[in-house]
Amino acid sequence: PLWMAAVAAFVAVALGKALFGGLGHNVMNPALVGRAFVQAAFPVAITTWTPAFAPGRFTEFVPSTLTLPFMKPNSVTDWIVALNIDGFTGATPLAMQKFQHIFVSTTDLFLGGVVGSSGEAPALLILLGGLYLAARRMLDWRIPVGVFAGAAAVALPLWLYDAFTYPSPLFVWFSGGLMLGAWFMASDMIASPVTPLGAFVYGALIGVLTVVIRLFGGLSEGVMYAILLANAASPLIASITQPRVYGQARRQGGRA
To answer: How remote is the C-alpha of 21 from its chain's centroid?
Structure first.
């Protein structure tokens, strides 16, 4: 329902941004703060999708879209029958991999022939959009590169050890929200380190946490929480990775 989006927007602005002093002072990505709230409050509603390539999936409203808060949603049975839709599904590629050890084709993931949240697929378009922003210097390219490197550093050894149980690095990159998060969420200029090394370390931390949550946590997706945790660690990362100014003396025996 649309009111859930309104709730997420309110939480994002009120708790994710205004609480910390407004524009330019937020500690974490406000959009992810709002999404984390509705993820915890309404987990079923925001993890249910229509099948990929279902007729009318872009031109028709699901009957429950305009349902008011605390009201019973309208039946979707007639809508499903009219559009010849098999039903709703929550079996995303990540869920299928985690709980059933079924791996969706990497090509389908890259081109978007899968179910998932709006904006997660296809990975190709997200990649092109991210490269465009990087070319225009509207984001630090070290962050997404760090995300992909960190994710691959964890996924590759596990995949080589047991390819039946663990996904390949390409599957990790193209599935779920990793591609979207790496290019458009993690690169938030306010909540990420400004030092070159810090940006890469910050991105790598997101990649590592994402794969760890996906493979060993209770959730099939971990991008959102990985970015929020890295946002919280951003000041520490920036402090540790501060480059030494030319001519600055090193500390020796407690003296500069």
So the answer is: 25
Does any domain span residue 140? yes
CB-CB neighbours of 173 under 10 Å: 23
In a domain, 196, yes or no: yes
Q: Which of 55-64, 152-161, 166-175 has the lowest mean pLDDT?
A: 55-64
Question: Considering its fold, how many domains does the chain have in total?
Answer: 1
Which is nearest to 40 in space by CA: 218, 161, 202, 176? 218
Contact (CB, 8 A) for 176 and 93: yes
Please give the average per-residue pLDDT across 32-38, as a whole number.
91
Rg of the chain in Å (alpha carbons): 21
**Domain extent at residue 212:** 96-242
Helices (H), the chain: 2-14, 30-41, 77-82, 93-95, 106-111, 123-135, 142-161, 169-174, 178-180, 196-216, 223-240
pLDDT tens per residue across span 193-209: 989 999 999 999 999 99
- Classify residue 26 as exposed, middle or buried by CB count within 10 Å of its CB (0-12, 13-18, 19+): buried
In contact, 238 and 36? CB cutoff 8 Å: no
Q: What is the pLDDT of residue 117?
A: 66
Amino acid at 194: V
pLDDT range class, residue 87, cuts 50, 70, 90: very low
175 within domain boundaries: yes
Q: Is residue 253 part of a domain?
A: no
